[in-house]
Amino acid sequence: MASTDNQNSSVFKHFNWKTFVSGGIAGSVAKTLVAPIDRVKILKQVHSRHYDGFGIFESFYRIYQIEGFLALYKGNGAQMIRIFPYAALQFTSYETFKSLNKRIFKDKSGNVFNSLACGSLAGITAVSFTYPLDVIRSRLAFQFKGEHVYKGIVDAVIKIYSESKSIKSYYRGYLITVMGMVPYAGISFSSFEHIKKFVLKNNYKYLTHLGSHKSSTSETHIYYELTVVGKLLCGALTGIVAQTITYPLDVVRRHMQLSGMISEANTKMGIIDTFGYVYSKYGVVKGLYRGITLNYIRAVPMVSTSFCFYELSKMK
């Protein structure tokens, strides 16, 4: 019995408040830094008539000039309510799945497929619990001054529910999100782990330094660990790889989330129809990859900051 208890304790040893809070803070810090970029990205992805035809910097200036500085953070309240539990659940469940993976597959647990699976399951766990807040946040961020459909988070909750009189309204685009989350989260965590191992193995100057740790027996263990610059670089490369592969799914998801606010879109369109609509109307570059440059500007600091802060917060 004692052996079983120890095994269970070992499997879920990462499911603790430190990991949970570290992940939540990491996500909140990262999202706050890129909130203005995130709003412009949403407006670009779905071709907002108020900003269509404007460049990236012109859009930033137009929001500031017409709607004011705080408009750059429109929808960020719902984002913050969502991102803390989302990031916390994602990082915590990833550590738990990694522990389970090691226990079940032992020597084979370190291969790419197992790493991808752990990241994907962590992403699905997090998004399933917080998806309604993502829909609410997207609706709030899409609004233009003088044309507000929702007065705030509570009003959005009520009105979105009234669209179908069920919780289905909060989960519009959920399936495409999960479809995107599986490769995105899997690639993110797996890429970070492998890039991190590669950098540590080659001991690149300025990216690694010597670290030490005292065990329970008071023995000091010396090892190489990533510097802050190393953590940021590994996170940045991770963001570029993951975003490039999964970006079209994000565009389709956003169209589905905002279908009720876009007059030309059919709110009853499914994933395939929405994908076909975006492709036939706008093409690949101006449709499925619309806003990808802005997304790199957003994703690289966000992902690198998130992974870096998480690694730092886990340190004793």
Count of runs of 4 or more consecutive helical residues: 11
Compute the average pLDDT.
79
Tell me roughly what share of residues is in helical segments.
55-70%
Beta percentage is under 5%
User: Largest sheet, order of strands side by side?
Assistant: 1-2
Secondary structure class reads mainly alpha
Whole-angstrom Rg: 21 Å
Described by strand count, sense and barrel closure, the largest sheet is: 2 strands, antiparallel
Apparent shape: globular
- Distance separating the two termini: 31 Å
Q: What is the H/E order? A: HHHHHHHEEHHHH
Query: How many beta strands in the DSSP annotation?
Result: 2
Uncertain segments are 1-12
Description:
With 316 residues, this protein is mostly helical. It contains eleven helices and two strands. It has helices at 2-11, 17-45, 56-67, 76-105, 112-142, 153-162, 174-202, 228-257, 271-282, 284-288, 292-314, and strands spanning 208-214, 220-226. It has a two-stranded antiparallel ribbon.
